[in-house]
Design a protein that fits this description.
Keywords: Transferase. Pfam families: CoA_transf_3. By secondary structure, this protein is α/β, with parallel strands linked by helices. It folds into two domains: 249 residues, Crotonobetainyl-coa:carnitine coa-transferase, domain 1 (Rossmann fold); 71 residues, formyl-coa transferase, domain 3 (2-Layer Sandwich), CATH 3.30.1540. Helix content is 36%, strand content 14%. It contains 16 helices and 14 strands. The strands form four sheets. The chain has a seven-stranded parallel β-sheet. Helix 2 packs across helix 8 and helix 8 crosses helix 9. The radius of gyration is 25 Å and the shape is elongated.
């Protein structure tokens, strides 16, 4: 098997000693792209094994969704034997991913300061709640709590409702993505310097980073961002709109698209109305515009209208439930559903590389106690 067919990260050895979501998600992405990932769990296993139902053979789907392309073993780092086994693996690793509470590994004598001296090429990636210092430093972080603290909940939900948690662990997941970016940046820099470094992706920082365009709006004029339901805070119509059947989401980003929308629903004159002619005017007068649009769209079947709008160059979509989205023909065409032996199904890798595509080699819970021997390891 040539290097390209193994994946972009072939030869990179990753020791994933993290748990829950952000760290394991990072490890899974690295594994999808060819890294050899060993996941080390405590004797009782990662907590998310119990986060169900549903369960298969006693292991929750939550765990299954974050831990493919890894081989798993169990060690107790509070024991001398466990720490010794970890050190033997670190000696062969390029990357270590962890999300222990700040100070825990240091108390065991296996923190970054100690290990970086012994293994100077090691890239150490920590996923944390708030970082190690500062007013909230070293405190534990959880997705929903960070959504609340970073303003995400305050701008999510209906305009006349209360703050609402985003219905998926968006902060945990983007922190995992930021951890991947940090690891890749550090590996790239190591090609020049020959040295590893400490990488940190904090939930708090990642939550704040998601606030566009609300933060940009506030920085410019100081107006407190408000909930707008499905509607975009800056442009309109960028909203879920009622039709004669199912609602559709219309995402108009410029005057040309708005004119096309108006023609499709039989209101060409609306595009010339001074109240709606420009993007700024449409945003300011969105209440009136929504009434006019929905009154006309009541004569249309939602799915048929989506097809007509898309054909006319107007971004539009049906509002699908999760099961319909996962079974959509384009989902399958894009290879976004992965099936592996043993009944595993999961979301595929969203990043497509032409020569070194992602691959799916190990179903969750595949055992392993050492890195795979390789002559092309980046560290050895």
């Amino acid at each position: 098997m040539n290097q390209a067919s193994k994946g972009a990260l072939a030869g990179i050895r990753v020791l994933d000693i993290s748990r829950i979501l952000g760290g394991p998600y990072c490890g899974q992405i690295l594994g999808d792209h060819g890294a050899d990932v060993l996941k080390i769990e405590p004797p009782q296993g990662d907590d998310t094994r119990t986060w169900g139902p549903p369960f298969r053979e006693g292991v929750a789907s939550y765990y299954q969704g974050l831990n493919r392309n890894k081989r798993v073993q169990h060690l107790d780092f509070s024991t001398e034997e466990g720490r010794g086994a970890l050190l033997a693996l670190v000696a062969e690793a390029d990357v270590l991913i962890e999300n222990f509470k700040t100070g825990t590994m240091e108390r065991w004598g296996i923190g970054y300061e100690e290990l970086s001296k012994r293994f100077p090429r090691l890239v150490w990636c920590r996923v944390s709640g708030f970082g190690a210092d500062g007013p909230l430093g070293a405190l534990p972080g959880y997705d929903a709590a960070v959504q609340a603290m970073t303003g995400i909940m305050s701008i999510n939900g209906e305009a006349d409702g209360g703050p609402l948690r985003v219905g998926l662990p968006v902060v945990d997941m983007v922190t995992g993505l930021n951890a991947v970016i940090g690891v890749l940046l550090a590996l790239q820099e190591r090609n020049r310097s020959g040295r590893g470094q400490f990488v940190e992706a904090a939930l708090y920082d990642s939550g704040l980073s998601l606030l566009h365009p609300h933060a940009a709006n506030w920085f410019m004029d100081g107006t407190e961002p408000r909930r707008t339901g499905n509607a975009h805070p800056n442009i309109y119509p960028y909203d879920a709109l009622a039709t004669g059947t199912d609602p559709v989401f219309v995402a108009v980003g410029n005057d040309r698209q708005f004119a096309s929308l108006c023609r499709c629903i039989g209101l060409p004159e609306l595009a010339e109305d001074p109240l709606f002619r420009t993007a700024g005017a449409r945003s300011v007068n969105r209440g009136q515009l929504k009434q006019r649009l929905e009154a006309a769209m009541a004569a249309f079947d939602g799915r048929t209208l989506v097809d007509q709008l898309m054909a006319a160059g107007v971004p539009a979509a049906p509002v699908l439930p999760v099961d319909a989205a996962l079974q959509h023909p384009h989902t399958l065409h894009r290879e976004m559903v992965v099936e592996m032996p043993g009944g595993y199904r999961g979301i595929g890798a969203p990043v497509k590389l032409s020569r070194t595509p992602a691959s799916y080699r190990h179903a969750p819970l595949t055992p392993g106690d050492a890195f795979v021997p390789s002559e092309d390891s980046a560290q050895h």
